[in-house]
Amino acid sequence: MFRVVPGAASRKDFVLGAEGLLPAAEAQAGGETIYAAYDAQGALLGVAMEAAATGYQDVIRILYGYNPACECVTGIKVLKMAETPGLGDKIAFDPEFLKNFEALDARLAPGRDGLLNEIVAVKHGNKTAPWQVDSISGATISSKAIARMINQSGQRMFPLIMRHLDRLRAGG
Ligand SMILES: Cc1cc2nc3c(=O)[nH]c(=O)nc-3n(C[C@H](O)[C@H](O)[C@H](O)COP(=O)(O)O)c2cc1C
What we know:
Radius of gyration: 16 Å
Number of helices: 3
Helix content: 10-25%
Number of strands: 9
Strand content: 25-35%
Order of helices and strands: EEEEEEHEEEHH
Mean pLDDT: 96
Oligomer: single chain
Structural class: alpha+beta
Bound molecules: flavin mononucleotide
Strand order of the largest sheet: 2-1-3-4-5-6-7
């Protein structure tokens, strides 16, 4: 949590689903759990959530952070993977790769119902835009899976997070 939303001092769990946004303790109908992170003064710093997609070997699952103020992704943490040691498993610790996600552009389109630019992985050395992920050389498939899962999750979740921003800022 504190790896994907830098500076977080506290956390409140919410469920986003058919009932809208509810504190996790009050949610009946189910939905997707999101973790709102606040600084020591109680200001919303970002929201963490899970995403998953199939990599080279098997499903990869991550926790990642989103900052509604900059409309950007602020970090990822690999929770589960079976990628090849020395190749795909670098998605979890390669510093250059992880730098992609420190301020990854995730601005919403004017209609506020999806991303202005799809988050995509490009071959190593070919990143030209702030919404692109520079792949790990020799592990493009694993890298693409990370970009794909963030794109899929973000297209759905970021518009909803923005819609409920006042409640998330208020902390419940
Ligand atoms: C035994 C074996 C294991 C591999 N494991 C991975 C992996 O975990 N992740 C991955 O992206 N590519 C893996 N690859 C390489 C992919 O087949 C592919 O070549 C690579 O993702 C392409 O990246 P590149 O375009 O940077 O060379 C593996 C290849 C072999 C032969």
